[in-house]
Design goal:
- The chain is built from 10 helices and 8 strands.
- The chain has 300 residues and is α/β, with parallel strands linked by helices.
- It has one domain: Arginase, Chain A, CATH 3.40.800.
- Strands 2-1-3-8-7-4-5-6 form an 8-stranded parallel beta sheet, sandwiched between helices.
- The protein is globular and about 45 Å long.
Length: 300
């Protein structure tokens, strides 16, 4: 059975003029239920992740500042979020959701998180709507429990996974692959194991050609036994922040390439959502919903 992490806390409210579309975290499960892609049984409310697994990835001094609400104004500004205890609790639960979804993936082939993909969180700081790096926390959890020995992180958000790259820059067990807008945020890029910078306005055909070529290239260098997939939809042509030119059909084919790869080499995959900032919330929901439909079609 497809298992999907979701919690009401994912939709923690922000000021009305804030540009991060938190409502997508409640609208997406509603859409999936309405169209019959999933039932209530597919969802689970993640447990709050034990702090030791957060400290296995993030510096204790940084995490303590988060818990005590002691970030400086500059540090808060870098995250893009107004800091609150509820926001920190939300991030801890999202990380727990990705870890638990990965454990379900070991049983069912795939597990999913309605949120997550917080790839701009570094070891010692947050950036770009990310406070804790759920991808890195999950990868370290799997490695430390012996559930995986070689993990591939496929990050297809329009923004480079700079925090993930920093966290794993000296860890050969994790291969970080980021395919992103070259001229987009962050302007100072970190070095992933493989970075592919894309030109503004790239369309479906060329994007998919580049992705397929690089996935093939990775598998010649690194054969994973687990895949973590950041499936951000800010590559969509309608996205306010993305500057790329993909259609909904192109995103569907992108997701199919990654999930089919996991199937073909018979390794579990955990999929988390990442960004999406189109002016119409419907465009965001429709683009995100596709990967859940695809997971049901391919795995169940």
């Amino acid at each position: 059975m497809l298992k999907i992490a979701w919690s009401p806390l994912y939709s923690h409210p922000l000021p009305e003029d804030h540009r991060f579309p938190m409502e997508k975290y409640s609208l997406l499960p509603e859409q999936l239920l309405y169209e019959g892609t999933v039932s209530e049984d597919n969802f689970f409310v993640p447990e709050m992740l034990d702090e030791k697994w957060i400290l296995n990835t993030h510096d204790e001094a940084y995490f303590t500042k988060l818990k005590k609400q002691n970030l400086s104004k500059a540090e808060i500004r870098a995250t893009g979020f107004p800091l609150s205890p509820q926001l920190v609790e939300r991030e801890i639960q999202i990380a727990g959701g990705s870890v638990q979804a990965a454990l379900f993936a070991m049983e069912f082939g795939i597990g999913m998180n309605i949120a997550g993909g917080t790839h701009h969180a570094f070891t010692d700081r947050g950036e770009g709507f990310c406070l804790l790096n759920d991808l890195a926390i999950t990868a370290n959890y799997l490695l430390d429990h012996g559930y995986a020995r070689k993990i591939l992180i496929v990050d297809l958000d329009v923004h480079q996974g700079n925090g993930t790259a920093e966290i794993f820059r000296a860890k050969s067990e994790v291969f970080t692959f980021s395919m992103h807008g070259e001229k987009n945020y962050p302007h100072r890029k970190e070095k992933s194991d493989l970075d592919v910078g894309l030109p503004d306005g790239i369309k479906d055909t060329e994007y998919l050609r580049i992705l397929e070529k690089n996935l093939d290239h990775i598998l010649r260098r690194f054969v994973p036994d687990f895949i973590l997939y950041q499936s951000g939809v800010d590559v969509l042509e309608t996205d306010k922040l993305g500057r790329l030119g993909l259609s909904h059909a192109g995103i569907l084919q992108r997701d199919k390439l990654v999930l089919s790869l996991a199937q073909s080499i018979q390794v579990p995959v955990m999929c988390c959502m990442g960004g999406g900032y189109s002016a119409r919330i419907k465009d965001i929901i429709d683009a995100h919903a596709q990967v859940f439909r695809l997971a049901q079609d391919l795995f169940f």
